[in-house]
Amino acid sequence: MKKGHTTVWKNCLKIIKDNVPSISFKTWFEPIVPVRLVDNVLTIQVPSPFFYEYLEEQYIDILKKTLRKELGQNARLEYSVVMENNSHSQNKPYTVKFPAKNQSTLKNKLVSVPMENTGNIIKNPFIIPGIKKLHVNPQLNEAYSFNNFVEGECNRLARSAGFAVGNNPGGTAFNPFFIYGDSGLGKTHLAQAIGIQVKEARPEKIVLYVTANLFQTQFVESIRNNTKNDFLHFYQMIDVLIIDDVQEFAGKEKTQDTFFHIFNHLHQNGKQLILTSDKAPVELQGLEQRLLSRFKWGLAADLQSPDLETRIAILNKKIYNDGIEIDPSVVEYIATHIKTNVRELEGALISLLAQSTLNKKEITIDLAREMIDKLVKNSYHEISINHIQKVVCEYYKIPLDMIQSKTRKREIVQARQIAMYFSKSLTKSSLATIGAKIGGKDHATVLHACKTVNNLIDTDKRFRMQVHELEKKLKI
Ligand code: ADP
Ligand code: MG
Hey, is 242 helix, strand or coil? Predict the structure, then answer.
């Protein structure tokens, strides 16, 4: 009697199960549904176009082997790709969205794959000769390498742990590796350095750097385009996933939920996660508890402001890399006057160079002084919601946790509203993010706070004065 599609597929799965890791089996084989067997052509249904591509890239050989064992040398495999939201996209060409830079098109819903013999002898089903890995552009910037990352007291732990992760992704206790610290202290640089290190030592690893914001945008788009499965499958096959600025997930529950699943999948699979944030996991507001607890599984390492010696070393590195010459006394002058933030340190060096080239002036201490004076006067620090809360609380002499609590006491409510108002006017954060970071409020509450403060500024002279004073303090 001839075997039916269910039996054939079941038999294939038995062999496959013994040959692929169980997590991969769950992810990539369990969702497959056998649909029919006509002559020697088995049709299997896969949940998304990306899924089909991934199977083709990673598992075609084992599929081929098992299917031939079942159906003989003429066996063929056809995929029926489920298009999400069928009614709209049935006849449209389908574009695989992830990764954005490597788009390929599936013209038909049914994809037929001839399984001609390539003549390759397959020694190991996991290392498939002649089949290229899915190409993912890791989005890494060569400039952000470990070579260019100056070590100092301020970053020693984070740097050496990061280095260990780079050499053995997924194989250290530092998973996830969580890097936190204020803006401009090198979080992005360090996270990227790890990615670069992995790529150098193990080019076959799929590395991806993505900002939390981009992740969120892609996620929202995938919902809109009915490609959420593709989105998930894409992220589930990354070996080293770097998510920058995870504090941006605050208040975005659906994104967090999806990230939680991706996180679990990768972690269970021994894949490396690297996360950065402007706050320690315990201080992250607006993030779900279950996500925060995951963040604490590995190592959280912070970056501090560099000391003078490190600041000088950083400047010298940049100067050397750019092939320019600057008198050491000028370097020291800059490093002495710009203390907190490496980004500003670099900014100062760049404006100094620009000044000297444009005005054809020599780079002297005087020029540096002129420039730094201007820089300090003209540029505001990047202001964070945290910083705003701190300053507002100091000003009204209330403890920081009060402003984040649910209390309805009048003076606390007002301080909270002012903090929300400044967060809206002085940062680029969304209403939802601001609300999440200030006591877990929703966007409507923040909007209401901004209106209330604006009204009071118009009507209450004393209030207006306080707001002006606060604004001055915030912009120092
Ligand atoms: P963050 O992500 O923490 O805001 P970045 O990683 O963007 O900070 O760093 C800001 C700038 O400072 C970058 O140009 C980076 O190369 C530089 N930088 C930070 N730390 C170091 C360091 N230890 N050595 C060399 N350059 C650094
Ligand atoms: Mg950054």
Answer: strand
**Domain match, 41 and 186 both:** no
How do residues 353-391 score in pLDDT, each as one tens digit?
A: 888 888 888 888 888 888 887 766 555 556 789 889 999
For ligand 2, an ion, list residues with CB under 5 A. Answer: 187-188
- Is 428 part of any domain? yes
Q: What angle do CA 294, 295, 301 make, to 5 degrees?
A: 150
Looking at residue 320, its pLDDT comes to 92
Range of 43's domain?
Answer: 5-115
CA of 189 to the centre of ligand 1 (A): 5
Strand order in the sheet with 177-180: 207-211, 240-244, 272-277, 177-180, 299-302
Question: Phi and psi dihedrals of 42, rounded to 5?
Answer: -95, 130
Q: Which amino acid is at 35?
A: V
Same structural domain, 266 and 180: yes
Rounded-to-integer distance, Cα 128 and Cα 137, Å: 21
Cβ < 6 A, ligand 1 pocket: 144, 148-150, 155, 181, 183-189, 314, 317, 342-343, 346
Predicted TM-score (pTM) of the model is 0.65
